[in-house]
Structure formats: C-alpha cells, structure tokens
Design a protein that fits this description.
Two copies of one chain form a homodimer. Chain A is 34% helix and 25% strand. With 338 residues, chain A is an alpha+beta fold. In chain A, helix 2 runs parallel beside helix 6 (206-215). In chain A, 55% of the residues are buried. Strand 2 of chain A pairs antiparallel with strand 3 of chain B, so a sheet runs across the interface.
C-alpha cells in the first residue's frame, strides 16, 4: 500500500523531509545560524554582499501538467523559476524556504521526490533549504518557494538601466519550452525530444547572470519567464525606453523550425510568445558587447544572439521584417488572469 | 458592476497594488536597494544584525472562514502569523514578500482590502512589501507570505535552549481564539464579543519577543501557533527536556470560563489545545523571571503567567491537577494532515 500524507501526518512528513535534506542536501554553511526547526531561520549576512529575495509559486494544472511531469521534475522546475530570478539580478542562490499546499492522499514518496528535484537544482550552488511550511490544500496542489541569494554590493543588475541605442542580447533559444509543450498537447509524447525535454526540465542561466553582473558593464538584465516579448516589455517599461527588433536575427533552432512546420505555426511566434524558458535578455552599450559575449561564453555553451537595440520611443516595440517592412508589437506577457 | 481580476488582468492588478502600497504603506527604507518591479528585491543588511526569514501560508476554508472574516481581516491575520514567527526569535519585521493564489472572479477591491490588512500590521514597524507573486488558483485561494526580519547579532532566541528546572512563562490567554471560533461555529455570531474578536483579529507579541531577546537572559522562546501544548512539545523536543505544568496556574480568563460553560467544554482544554493565538512561551532560570516579567510588562499590557517548569524527562509533559493527581499529556499540536 502506498503511504500517504494522511498516514504519516504533518510532523511525520517534516521528520522525513529533514532526514532527506540531511542525507542528500548540501552541508549547512557556517553563516547559517538557525536552520529548519524553529519559528524562523537566521543567518549572518556576508560583509560586502547585498541580499536578494524572490518568491514564485507553481500551481498544479496551471503551471505544470502532472501527466507529463514526474514529481522530481516538478520540484526542479519550481526551483529553477526562482534560481532564474536571483540569477537575473546577478546573484547566486543561498537559502530556500518552501511552502507546500498538498492533498492528504498525496504519496509521501511523491513529496520526497519533489524535494529531490529541489536539491538537484540547489546542490550545485551549495544552497540549502532552511525552512518552509506544509499545509493541506483541498484541491490543486501548490509549491511556493522563497529564494534568498546574494550579490556583490553595488553589482546588482536591474531591469531599469537600459538606455536608447543599447544592444539587446538574448541567451539560448527562447520559445523551445512552449514548442515542446505544444508537441505534447498535440499528441507527440516523445519524452526524449529536445523540445519536450526543454519543457519538462527547463534550465536557468544563473551562472551567466552572475558572470555578466560581476564582470561586464551590462546596463540591464531580465529573465524570459513571461516570454521574450513580455519580458522585453517589462524591461522597456522600467527603463523608460523602446526597442527595435530584427526578425532575421532571432535565434530559432532547427528543432523549433521543424516543430513549427509540423504544428503549422510561425517559429518566430515561439520565440516571441509566452514560454517556460528561463533565458536572459541582456542590454549593454555597443562597445561592451564583446565583454558580455565573453562573460556568457565562460559560463554557458549555448548561443548569445544580438536581436535588436533599444530606442528612445518609450514602451514602443517595433519589429523589422526580412522584407524591410515594420510591424508594431504589443508587449503582452503571460497574464494569469487574462 | 464589481470589477474582478479577470477585468483588470495580472499586470493591471499589480499596478493597482503598487499604487496602494505607495500611498498607504511605510516609506521605503534607505537600505532597500531594489523594491517591487524587478526579478528579485535587494537590500543591504545592517551591520551587527542577523537576518531572519520565515514563511507561512493561509488557505481558504482551512485557516480562515470567509463568511466570518472580511478580506482586510484575512490580510491582517496572514501577516500576524508571520510577524509572530519573527518576534518569537527576538526579531523585528522589515520586508515582506506576498504570494497570492486567487480566483479570476475575485473582486479587485477584495485584493486591495487584503493588502490594507497587510499594511495594518506592517506599518507600525515601518516594514514594507518588497515583492511577491500573483497567480490564478482554480479553487480555494491561498496567501503565502515570506517575512524577512532582523535581530541583533547573537541575540536570536531559539526553541532549543531550555534546561531542566527552567521556569515556563506564557503571555496572554492562549485558547481565546479557539473559544471565539467555537462560539461562531455554534451560532453565537457576535462580532464584538472579546473571544470572537480574538479569533477574527488575532494579535502577535513581536514587541514582547524582541524586548525579551534583547534585554533578558531567557533560555528559549516559541509562539503558540500550534496551540500551547503543541508548541511546548516542540520546545521540549528541540531542547531535549520535559515539562511539568500546574493546571491551577493556567491563565483562563472570565470570558473563556463563560464560553466553556456555555459550550459545555473544559476551559483548560481551550488553553492547552489548538487555537489561532500568537502568544509566546518563554523559558528562563528562576533568578531571571523578574527580568523577563519586566521586559514583557514594558511592551504588553496583558498578563504573563508562570505555568510550570522544565524537567529532565525528555519529551514528557506532565500535568499536576488541583487535587494533587498527575496526568501525562501528549503534545500533539495542530496537524494539517491528521
């Protein structure tokens, strides 16, 4: 018989998770003064560093489809979303707090697998889980993670620093995750297909983000969690500038082109639209492009592509097509209530 | 027509919340370097302070009954739960991150009222909301708050420091909230009844916690969010001691006695059992009781009561009744999956 949360109870589950973290998690760093097991966790901040904090939740059925993803993949994805946010500011993750809303009939093994997914992503940074909360959730499950990171003082890279004329660079192939999801939804359930893998096990570029913030003079950075266009829109809004994009330059991989043909879609829409990718949009002045490229190359084997430049026209995003014509784009990202 | 989240969309709602926080929230402190509106928030830690972090969620139907509580009360309660955790370590709240899972048909005004509830509790500390997350939740709503606080270095008060012979003190009247809830559930819907008010608008003792941690030699502290007995059990477990309680000494107010009589319950069970109160259990050596009492009295007008002492018998909690007999208690707190 499968052991469920109702069988072990909240405090039984907490003990099981403790044991798992102790055995499979990174060692507690010396600056952590109080870990799991008290009203709050406590740590001594490192001199010369700023503290970064972000939180993000994933909700069953809305952010992930349990029939395509294992509990471990769900855990990984939830942590990647948060690591990406810390990385997009130029920081490195240190401490996570995990709030889970779960149904009583959930197998204990599934919860342990979710935690293993968290550790898959945290362990490479030596980051640890220092607290959290478990609650029964009547209907859909939710995972809400708070991630605390650190970045060198005054090296935090914001969304708001881009200026007119700055070059727009983007890592990887934004849109691959949505292309993979569309394949799954249209019945192409091939777990080893690179696009399907991109959806099921997305990657973050936190190493890239930290390198760019520490070693270059990039002006702004944001991750693509709301889709390339949505997040470029946020960056434009916060920087009070516009953007001009060159469609021909968009990084569209061979697999994305094939998937677009198969699904009768425009591959550029995969690139621009909502997609669960965690790539980085980076802006910098022309003379700093080479330095940004080499900071990226030092930490990531994939492409970094110049896709356009910032303009003075606040909020306006304009697309230059191959035939020389122009198109005005509406920077609508993924809207949870839209 | 009532304006709903579906009408304004996620980003519309975010703009509304920004405006509300700007107008009604505390001013952003100078050590906050990045507030709302980026991938993560950033702040410079104050020298000489440790950082505290806690997170807690409330789920509709499980932690609050919308028919008894206004959205503003729900906001207040969710923040009180977290402030209490920071206070129970001896800290003061500084920064909150709020993750909301909401139904699309929720009126925008209700969300604004929830935020006003947060501010009711944060503003007295000059604490601010620095980030968060909004997501659509198909069924029940949830509010998950991460609260970042600070405490003077090496003045953090843990659960694990109690020793045999230490005196057990408790603030206020644990159990009033459950007594109020029972009145409501039994049809005594009098919103001005002190017990009902204690349920609908619970208070935290964070000011007391900070004073005790900074100015006394208390050995351990915990809040009573799992009920007095449940949390005393946690404290015993973490400190590896037992406890002996004097039933006669339990703080049971006149209202609790009346409610117990009306509901045909034992008033001591209100005191011991699960209840949404956020009082503090404080332990200290006999010679420090007077100092703890005066630290409490300096910050809180209610009672602080000596209810027993710690014993060597790890984990055992023993109740001494008025007739001289003894009873062994099982320290079961509120179990979400029990």
């Amino acid at each position: 018989m499968v052991e469920t949360l109702e069988d072990v109870g909240e405090f039984g589950l907490i003990r099981r998770i403790h044991a798992l973290l102790k055995k499979e998690g990174a060692a507690q760093p010396p600056d952590l003064t109080v870990g799991i097991g008290d009203d709050a966790a406590a740590f001594k901040p490192r001199p010369g560093y700023e503290i970064l904090v972000t939180c993000d939740s994933v909700v069953e059925g809305r952010h992930y489809l349990p029939r395509f993803m294992t509990p471990r993949d769900i855990g990984r994805r939830s942590m990647v979303v948060n690591i990406s946010d810390i990385g997009a500011m130029g920081g490195r993750p240190r401490y996570a707090l995990v709030s889970l809303g779960l149904k009583g009939e959930t197998p204990v093994g599934d919860v342990e697998a979710i935690y293993r997914g968290f550790l898959d992503e945290l362990n490479p940074f030596g980051a640890t889980i220092i607290g959290g909360n478990l609650t029964a959730s009547g209907n859909g499950a939710f995972i809400d993670i708070t991630l605390v990171g650190e970045a060198r003082e005054d090296k935090v890279l914001r969304r708001s620093g881009a200026g007119p004329g700055d070059i727009i660079l983007v890592t990887g192939y934004p849109g691959v995750s949505n292309a993979g999801l569309q394949l799954l939804l249209h019945g192409f359930e091939q777990p080893d297909h690179p696009l399907v893998k991109a959806y099921i096990r997305p990657s973050h570029r936190a190493g890239v983000g930290a390198a760019v913030a520490e070693h270059t003079r990039a002006t702004a950075m944001i991750d693509t969690s709301d889709g390339f266009l949505g997040d470029l829109g946020h960056l434009c809004e916060e920087s009070n500038v516009g953007a001009e994009l060159l469609q021909e330059a968009f990084p569209v991989s061979k697999e994305m082109q094939d998937a677009a043909a198969l699904l009768d879609k425009d591959p550029y829409e995969f690139f621009l639209g909502a997609s669960d990718d965690y790539e980085l949009i980076i802006t910098c002045r022309t003379e700093h492009v080479a330095a940004v490229r080499s900071a990226v190359a030092a930490t990531y084997a994939g492409p970094v592509t110049q896709v356009g430049r910032m303009t003075e026209q606040a909020g306006g995003i304009c697309l230059l097509l191959a035939d020389g014509s122009e198109q005005s784009l509406s920077a609508k990202g993924w809207d949870h209530f839209g």
